[in-house]
Amino acid sequence: MVADNALTTRQKNIKxxxxxxxxxxxxxxxxxxxxxxxxxxxxxxxxxKSDLEKFRDKWSLLGDLVNNHEDLRExxxxxxxxxxxxxxxxxxxxxAFGEANRHPAARVVTxxxxxxxxxxxxxxxxxxxxxxxHKVSTLKEMAFDHRKILSLCYEWLQKRIQEHPLGFSLxxxxxxxxxxxxxxxxxxxxxxxxxxxxxxxxTMGLLEDTGEFEANVPHRPGKLYRFNYEKYQKxxxxxxxxxxx
Length: 245
Fold this sequence. Notes:
- This protein has helices at 2-24, 72-84, 146-163, 177-188, 194-204, 229-234, 237-240; strands at residues 28-39, 42-49, 59-60, 62-65, 92-97, 108-118, 131-135, 207-213, 223-227.
- The chain is elongated.
- By secondary structure, the chain is of the alpha+beta class.
- The longest helix has 23 residues, at 2-24.
- Strands 1, 2, 3, 4, 5, 6 and 7 form a 7-stranded mixed β-sheet that branches. A two-stranded antiparallel ribbon has the order 8-9.
- Strand 1 (28-39) and strand 2 (42-49) form a beta hairpin.
- Helix content is 36%, strand content 24%.
- It folds into 2 domains: 2-161, Nucleoside Triphosphate Pyrophosphohydrolase, CATH 3.90.79; 164-240, Orthogonal Bundle (Arc Repressor Mutant, subunit A).
């Protein structure tokens, strides 16, 4: 309850600050956190209901104005902590958005920070009824220009997962090739050829056969593999990744 009250006070202060920025003709700076989550073979994004009357009942990204005393990265982690209670999520800066009319109250330039997490491994510490995971594939209109920000961050994520092995952190320590392909299909939003997909990963030589098989599955048990991070780190990463499906 204390955290909720603090957040409500912060929201009221933001409205006052925005009015001051508009009257003084000053450009404000904000940060928006685009938190993608992988769960049950689906890609989702964490959103909250907008508190502006103009965007009533519309969903928005997790954002806030940057304080005078903090840098952008500090602001991003503060916002994530205040909104979700999470403090163990890696955020990466993606892009700045500065259209003149993107915010109805004042001129505000926002910087998007992005992350990809396993929802089951990062349980929300703050359970606000207005904070929910949404399927990326079903989202349409959002508050502000947040649909545009989400789309560009999604494109960034699709490119990143083909250049770096960040997707493996979303899987169990040992996983089947079916689970691996489901992950890539969910993020890339494409149906991949099973044989071609497996060939590409085996060619990289970064998957280790554990000699074990899946258990308690409704289909024929598949072999279990693990990703060899040590081998990946020893080589030039561009030689290993840069997958083009």
